[in-house]
């Protein structure tokens, strides 16, 4: 029923640990701030740590323990290699920002202690690898030198530190690594100035670019002398116009320059001349140099060729020689190779073999050895941006003859396999095949719709621009699709998923599809990209590069004849664009023209605006699908006292069962149910930072409930001495929000419920009989009903990462709040605990109604953690989807990990529980039948005896 | 620079914090020593007070010092010395050392897990490597050393919140006050129980059982289930009722039947065709 998957994210750095006997592993750090040790044989996680959001990993290495440098070079940690226990943690201080560098010199050892050199924040620190103690520190920021490289001189305890002061003064320091003593300091000015990265070609030579980015500068600092040598890129026979960049690499005697969209491998000859060795396109990736036996070096080059990827391992400095050349078939859904790390191993015949760890464009991680992919990890799933669900295909009843024949063969084959399995004749492959068949036909992982609506496809969009369909039964990837990249757009980013087409009544033959909205670039003004993806097949049906941007996307509650949902895209000029671009869509839209309203929240300016459609766009190009809009209302928050930190609206597809709520006093309260409610939270600008940055006296939190059609503020409440972050959920007629109370110094959760007073008069039976009631009047924002609100506040122990509410098919089942806590667990909390009608001493009638006596804090019952003893590391969001069974809701929590479960907030009242004992039921029936027969025989006998008497 | 002079009240002095000249030092340390003596003499008058003394004249091994304070300091300024912490810790209720150097304060503490002292790494909860310590709802996240210690650096003065995330245990968040006026004064309290802490040693309030214990199979649960009750009732009817009927006096029975007939109560037997024959 539940499943839990662990991921790590896109790998940034990888260090192999294979020298020792025992488990072979690779330690990686990722873009999700994860440090993990992976099994090199199977790719499983030995251990893993998810660092804080701001704790970006800068470097990783192995010196006895795993050493990681993070937080812009200010935190150095050591982790025990076998079990991942943190051994020590050191904080490095410095005054200035500089490039964080981590260096673990190979043979600088005193007893067992090896030295770790860290250059960060303008200082060079030497740290002991045993306890993390800082042995010595040298401040380069004082001399305004920005350190570029720390170089270990071969086999000695001396290091070179090179850097720039300003952009043209070059400094080289020779330092004794054991005690930090300065041995020598040379400096020289270069008139051209330096820019960009440096590439180290040997222990005393490096190459960089001058400020014009057209001259390669070779800097050698041999024998206490600094010499510059300039080489024009054009002298190398290359066109140097465009973007020139030196790529950081660690190849000896060679470096890589990226010019526009190709890469040059340039070698430094023995006469200190530069020559181009090879020219490749930009998709080619080079690994760092690997030192294997007796100081021999090797590096890997990965090139693309059609559907294949060619991996060549070359010995250092010799381009034309290959140690290994392999070609592997690569799924084109994985995109391009982004990074490669290599490692060597000894074959049985004492020769050297190489394995390569490849990071692909879709963030997946592959281990390649002997031309085969040994294992792969789909680590894009660690970076989910948006989730939606899709129904599975309906089970087909009528099947064509060809299909029957085909399935007959399959059926026979399946049975042969099963027979083999039972007769213990099956080979391992057969066993796997049997298991696959079993899995396919098992109730929970079938690829068809089920009666209860438990089986669904979870469509997830990831940062890697890859879309996955996960089966809700077991969490396996049904299909995955790397979105097509058009030539026009270099760096597309994906934003959201929308259900484009969900056929149910007519148009049953159409497959459902989702709309993926992205934009070309980072800014919100960048042109939008639309893609349509079939959710059954995982094929990209269509994709458009739009000319306008998409600041906001609004699915409308209308569909056309093929069940395509109408969507409105708002661009940065506040014009709206209608999709799909069909005449049918426009006719539907024109009918509802005057009923279309929306709102926009400008958090930076503190303005909320309501909009309506005005007219067709007036432009040179006639566009039927473009409309001008007008601002209906706006709410301007005073910038000096209020800053918007949260805006939450109701889920559009939420179902409310009843509007009336019968209280214990036989009284009726009418919920104010409007789809156009918006919850907004503002805080004092001073208190918008982290906890501890503001005094209670200068902090306040103001919450609003706003009708988004009219801009009417329905409710406003101030919490003095409170601050964010605010996590809120709006459902039915209530809103629950979580914030921090600075006075009590605890987190609080408040609930506010809104009731419609104008309907409260409908208690008179006579009125009801005579029809003089307004119950059938539609809930409309045009009317201005009297409303009342009730609120209550409780303490809540934990920080919160996400809040969601369960949703069921008909909205009858009571609700639970799903709270993602700071410990990456998901807690299910009954809405009954957040009921403003709770009082300290509820009356008997109220108790019967289910009102819980008021307590100052919300209870945390360990059994109500839906994740049980599992963690959804890096939790970011919780999605709830109703199942067809009213009692049940499907919950998907995602972060670095994924977790899926089914919840029944009021227990499964409409179906038997899973632990229902069918055996006992059968036994009872059998026993009853047996008893009937026995009694019948007995009574017959008795009757006979009576008659004889 | 605060100085403890009398009654352990921390009085901010006019001298600024960083710029203590060397000439000042001897006088100040003298003052400090005097106040320590004072402290020891007046132990009954407990008042949170902590000394922070920035001087370049005296250098103590800060690590050693802080071990006594159940905390570890890693500060750039080795020169900042907490030279009377050791004595003060006997009497003060302050909990963790913080340094008032230019980079902010640091908070150190320790998390005690039940399994950790026994090195029982087999149990999933008792493993220190699975514990995270979170500052201010995610501003910083740190991990535990094998001995359970943790520390946060570069903290601003003010009130902070420390939470411990450990699967299997319920920890109360801890409110930590870092005083700007009295550098080095840190107070901590559990927010759940409002209990003050003498040392920043965090212990779980309770263990958490995430799974409901499945009731063991017993014959009683079978009997108690609706179906069991049904079967039991049936058995009673089948086997005990005839016995009861037998024990009845046949005379009485006949009388009762006649009574019923005379009253004309439509008995069940009359309604069922065929049953009335006998």
CATH architectural name of the domain at 105-115 and 128-207 in chain B: Sandwich
* Element-by-element helix/strand order of chain B: EEHEHEHEEEEEEEEEEEHHHH
- Please give the share of residues in helix of chain A: under 10%
Question: Widest sheet of chain B: strand order?
Answer: 7-6-9-11-12-13
User: pLDDT average of chain A, as an integer?
Assistant: 85
What structural category arises from helix and sheet content of chain B? alpha+beta
Distance between the termini of chain A: 65 Å
Proportion of residues in extended strands of chain A: over 45%
> Which secondary-structure class do the elements of chain A indicate?
mainly beta
Q: What general form of chain B does the structure show? A: rod-shaped
Q: Give the number of helices of chain A.
A: 6
Number of strands of chain A: 65
Radius of gyration of chain B: 38 Å
Strand order across the largest sheet of chain A: 44-45-46-49-48-47
> What's the CATH C level of the domain at 105-115 and 128-207 in chain B?
Mainly Beta
By DSSP (H or I, 4+ residues per run), the number of helices of chain B equals 7
**Greatest contact pair?**
A-B, 61 and 57 residues
Low-pLDDT segments, ≥5 res of chain A: none
Summarize the structure in words.
The complex is a heterodimer of chains A (949) and B (278). With 949 residues, chain A is mainly beta. In chain A, the strands form 16 sheets. Chain A has a six-stranded antiparallel β-sheet, with helices on one face. In chain A, strands 10, 11, 12, 13 and 14 form a five-stranded antiparallel β-sheet that branches. In chain A, a hairpin with a 6-residue loop joins strand 63 and strand 64. Chain B is an alpha+beta fold and 278 residues long. Among the domains of chain B are: 105-115 and 128-207, Carboxypeptidase-like, regulatory domain (Immunoglobulin-like, Sandwich); 214-250. Helix content of chain B is 29%, strand content 22%. Chain B has seven helices and 15 strands. In chain B, the strands form five sheets. In chain B, strands 7-6-9-11-12-13 form a six-stranded antiparallel β-sheet, with no helix packed on it. At the A-B interface, strand 9 and helix 6 of A face strand 7, strand 8, strand 9 and helix 5 of B.
